[in-house]
Amino acid sequence: MKNVIYVFALLLISFCSCSSKNQYTNIINQFVELNEAMGVQKEDVGVVIASVRNTINQGAKSFKTFSRSLETQCASGVSRLRSSITSLQNSINEAVSNINNWQKNLNSAQTDVKDAQANIVKGRTQLGQLRSRVSKLLLDYQVYATESDKKLNVVKVLRDIITDELLNRSPSALVQVNKFQEKLAELKSLLNNNSDSLYSPMIGVLLDLATEQNFSDQTVLRKILQNLNNLDAALRNFRTKQEASLNNEVSSLRRQTRNVKSRIRAYHRMKQQAYSKVLDATNYINFYRHEQSHFTAEQGRQNNELNLFNKLCTFERNIHNASVAAFKQFKSQILPSLFNNVQKLH
Question: Residue 249 falls within a domain, yes or no?
Fold first, then answer.
């Protein structure tokens, strides 16, 4: 059997090596002559021919088996690579989808940061305005309190002069008249600066009467004293109301200030939370972009592997087809030639 295989291989190699049918026929003739010279019987050569035929048939089956195996392996490899490429494409699509979703989150968070910052700036502006209003109220009240103190002081001086000097007409009364006139004029001036005062015209009239009487009319002086007492009470009452109004307004402004501060703190927390979301979204976007790049590179590598695999399969098919063609040609030519030449052994 081993000799048969050697013979078959020799014949096949010879056939494939020959550039023409005539050359191969000459080789066959030489083979037959060699067998004849060696005394090989016709029957032995026939056995060889039968074994060669059987080997050729087995070879045909082997070619078919190899062809099926090749196609199976190629189809399996292509299917595996295409499935992997499709899976990678799905991963790429998923990464892109995640990038888009996190980009939306990033845009929303950035908008929240800007809105929070704008509200913080607005709150700080409101806070400054409220503080300015409180400062102005306190300053205005300080000015009013100073003027009120002046008025009350003048009223006290006038009452003291009337009570202590003019009503009793002491020896120093004439000296106090000039001082009284000066203080009364000062009070009138102070009251003229206050548009809400009802006492300025009355004080003026009383001053004129007292002057005409040279401050000797006790009735006029008592009326002046009564009006001064009323003015003192009115000034103190008005000042008390002003203080209460100031306290209420300042308290209201300070409540508003606390509310604005609370809002500013809340916006700071919102800004910090939004900024944290910005960082998270940025990190996730970078992560999924890295994944996208990785999957894209791997997909490119596997596409190259698929192309190479397809080329290898094509190359194997071409080699196989060429071998099958050569085998069929060998089969169609070798056996008739062998049979014809066997007859020459007689």
Answer: no
Residue 325 placed within a domain:
yes
Report d(CA 315, CA 329) in Å as an integer. Answer: 21
3-state secondary structure of 95: helix
* Tokens at 195, concatenated: 């548009």
Mean pLDDT confidence for 71-78: 88
* Residue 215 neighbours by CB under 8 Å, 6+ apart: 166, 173, 177, 180, 221
CA–CA gap between residue 314 and residue 68 (Å, rounded): 14
DSSP assignment, residue 346?
-
Among 66-80, 84-98, 145-159, 196-210, the range with the most confident prediction by mean pLDDT is 84-98
Could you tell me if residue 178 is inside a domain? Answer: no
Between CA 82 and CA 89 the distance in angstroms is: 10
DSSP string, 61-107: HHHHHHHHHHHHHHHHHHHHHHHHHHHHHHHHHHHHHHHHHHHHHHH
| DSSP assignment letter at 344 | G
> Pick the residue with more confidence: 27 or 308?
308
Structural domain includes residue 227? no
Nearest to 200 by CA among 228, 181, 229: 228
pLDDT at 293: 96
**Alpha-carbon 103 to chain mean position:** 5
- pLDDT single digits (tens) 7-46: 444 445 444 444 444 544 555 555 555 555 555 555 555 6
Give me the number of domains the chain comprises: 1
For residues 46 and 4, what is the distance between their CA atoms, to the nearest angstrom? 11
Give the domain range for residue 341: 2-100+303-345
The C-alpha atoms of residue 79 and residue 100 are separated, in whole angstroms, by 31
